[in-house]
Design goal:
This protein is α/β, with parallel strands linked by helices. Helix content is 53%, strand content 7%. It is elongated and about 70 Å long.
């Protein structure tokens, strides 16, 4: 089933290079985009000709056949991905060779479509590739802004919302890129994700709920991106405390998928305390959304045992466990603390692997 809501006009003017030695397939690819005047199709008969065109034309995306004379698709892909000038151009491999999918991805292809293809599939995959590339452009701007007073600007808010929306719609794994801006290493985010998945399973969540909450680790602290990094490093308490509300505001206008619904709850309420003395609303006990109660324990355990950009101090896993025990019925849901304590060895195993 393909997305019927794709809107190529949203993209502005784009050039697609179709690298294909069969004239019928060239005409077919052109016909797929005929109705979009802003999409320009340029043809190349082989890899050698494609490289020559790339040196004189601005190309936004490449549709690449594999079996061609005078430089086949594999050779072409290797050149594209080893050249700084061409590396960032999205490449969709279009071929009848089903068994070459893994190889092309290993060489750096962005997507893979089998011939004969459904025209709507090609449009949908192409649109997705354009949106994913735009996501990375937005991400660069967001990262630059996070290091300046522009972090809290309306433009940065718009960029963050749009980037999250693109990731949710087209490729959820893209959300992991926000970890870099939050100054969290990939290993750190992977560890958090494993904690959350384990805790969700121990609490009997459904497969769908576990899948959804596993992506929350990338964006529940999204509000921190809207705060100038210098303020976080300087331990500006007022600025830090605002991240829950900022996170909620960043997520509230995005299409409310199941992931976004959970993310809003967690972003806003993961610093509420069981005894009602947390923030931002002083919610108490089961007034605090369940997912927020769940994530708050994991977030606190990870914060205690890991160096973060705004707090370089950390303690051992065993000491962190004692702290969490003391926070039973103070910060945390007592039932969830009991489950965490009973299964602590599994959480420690995850921590020890990273």
């Amino acid at each position: 089933m393909f997305d019927n809501s794709i809107n190529f006009e949203l993209l502005g003017n784009k050039s697609i290079l179709c690298v294909e030695d069969d004239s019928f397939n060239q005409e077919l690819a052109s016909a797929v985009f005929d109705e979009y005047p802003n999409i320009k199709i340029i043809q190349a008969n082989n890899g050698k000709e494609a490289i020559e065109i790339l040196n004189i034309e601005k190309i936004d995306l490449i549709l690449l056949d594999l079996m061609m004379p005078q430089m086949n698709g594999f050779e072409t892909l290797k050149i594209l991905k080893s050249n700084d000038k061409f590396r960032d151009i999205a490449v969709i491999v279009v071929t009848s060779k089903e068994n070459e999918e893994i190889t092309t991805y290993q060489l750096g292809a962005d997507d893979f479509i089998l011939k004969p293809y459904n025209p709507q599939e090609l449009r949908s995959r192409t649109f997705k590739s354009f949106r994913v590339r735009y996501f990375y452009k937005l991400l660069k701007d967001i990262e630059i802004n996070s290091n300046s007073p522009q972090a809290s600007s309306s433009k940065n808010f718009k960029n963050i919302k749009e980037a999250i929306d693109i990731a949710i719609r087209y490729q959820k794994d893209l959300l992991s890129n926000f970890a870099n801006i939050l100054d969290r290493e990939k290993s750190s985010t992977a560890r958090l994700r494993e904690y959350i998945i384990l805790f969700a399973k121990l609490n009997g969540l459904t497969k769908k709920e576990i899948d959804d909450i596993s992506y929350i680790v990338y964006i529940y602290d999204i509000g921190l991106i809207a705060i100038e990094r210098k303020k976080l490093i300087n331990l500006d308490k007022k600025a830090y405390l605002s991240h829950t509300l900022l996170g909620f505001k960043l997520l509230e206008k995005i299409e409310p998928t199941s992931i976004i619904k959970i993310a809003k709850e967690v972003a806003y309420s993961h610093h509420e305390n069981w005894n009602g003395k947390g923030y931002p609303d002083g919610l108490k006990a089961e007034e605090i959304p369940f997912y927020a109660r769940l994530v708050s324990i994991i977030d606190y355990f990870d914060e205690l045992t890991t160096s973060r950009s705004y707090d370089k101090n950390y303690i051992s896993s065993k000491k962190a466990l004692e702290v969490i025990k003391r926070e039973r019925e103070v910060k945390f849901d007592p039932t969830l603390v009991d489950i965490f304590v009973e299964n602590f060895s599994q959480f420690k195993d995850i921590k020890d692997r990273f």
